[in-house]
Each structure stands twice: as C-alpha cells, then as structure tokens.
Amino acid sequence: MLYAAKGECVNGFDEEIKRRIRSTNFESEIVFRDAGLPGTTLEKYRHEYPSFRQPDPDDIMVLNDTATEVATHGRALAVGQVLFHGGTWPISQKTGTFLPTIYTDRVLSTTLLPSVAAIHANYHNPGQIWLLSVGPDSECKAIFYPPEGQLAHEYEVLISAGAKLQLDEKLDVGGMVVITATLT
Questions:
Q1: How far apart are CA 153 and CA 132, in angstroms?
Q2: DSSP H helical segments within the chain, as ranges?
Q3: Which of 12, 56, 152, 175 has its CA 20 to 30 A from that of 64?
C-alpha cells in the first residue's frame, strides 16, 4: 500500500492479492454474478454514473436503484477484510479537521487493490487513499463485481449506503494522505 501511495509499481502486490482471491472461495461467496449483466442497475452504475462530478437527477435515480440492489443482494464482509478507496475524506467546516466519523449517503465504491485506489485518488483534490478495515460490529453489505468484463481489473466492491466509517489514523506517505478507518 505504501508503494501505491508513493506512485511506485505495485503489480507484484496486486497480483498476489488476485492469486489469493482465486485460491479461496471469496468469489463464490460474495460475487454477485448479475452485477455485470448488460442493462442491470449495477452495470448502469458502473458504466454510466460519472462519480467525479455532482450527480444530476438521472444519476440520483441510478444511485438510489444501486443502493437498493446492494441492500437486497449484498452480503456481509468478513471481520478484518481490508478494502481500499480513492477519494477525499470530509473535513469539518467549523474546525478544518477531518471528521472523526462519516456515514455514506450512497453506495461506496471500493477495491481490493491499493493500486486502483491510488489511481482513483488522483481524480480528487486533495486525493487520498482510504484503507478500510471491516470492524466486528459492521452491519453493511457489499457486492463484489464479477472478475471479468470491461472493468474487471478494478476488483470493485460496492459497500451499502449508510455505512459508518470511523477515522483511525491519517498518514502522509510520499506526499499522499492515507486514511485508515474502520467500517462499522
């Protein structure tokens, strides 16, 4: 993860994660095969929703439908499961500091690969890599997209709307801020 934050090559690390996923029953337990089917809500979300701008009314409908799909078909993640996200952690307007706790108001796109989060972090200003660990009290659900198709390289995991993220630590790694948080 430190290499991803510094923008260095992490292919070997990513490949090891992929190898371990393939050698377990992770995919059979959490992959939602219908997520990648053309015309489905989850496929529309993945290909049509531009996550790097404010949503318009059509986007809001896709977001709401996607949240319903994740709530209906998602599964619990194992305690300790680590996920990554590239984004910007909200800051208190009053104090200018990172909020200690946030709740997602829509599904949260995460990945199993730190390199993907590092790339996505660069789309934001300021860009940050979030390292999320599933806590013992987590009630959120998740959908793992099938590891094939156009965006299979992202190893994307959608987290249900309403997830609670507790800030654990903020680190500066090679000029990139890394947020560690617990998903509860």
A1: 20
A2: 2-5, 11-22, 26-30, 41-48, 57-73, 114-121
A3: 152
Check if the beta carbon of residue 107 is closer than 8 Å to that of residue 65.
no
Give the model confidence (pLDDT) of 143-179 as tens digits.
Answer: 887 666 666 678 888 999 999 999 999 998 887 899 9
Top-level class of domain 2-183: alpha beta
Confidence of residue 1 (pLDDT cuts 50, 70, 90): very low
Q: Is the pTM of this model over 0.90?
A: no
Q: Domain locations in the chain?
A: 2-183
* Residue 110, helix vs strand vs coil: strand
Tokens 């909200």 appear where?
90
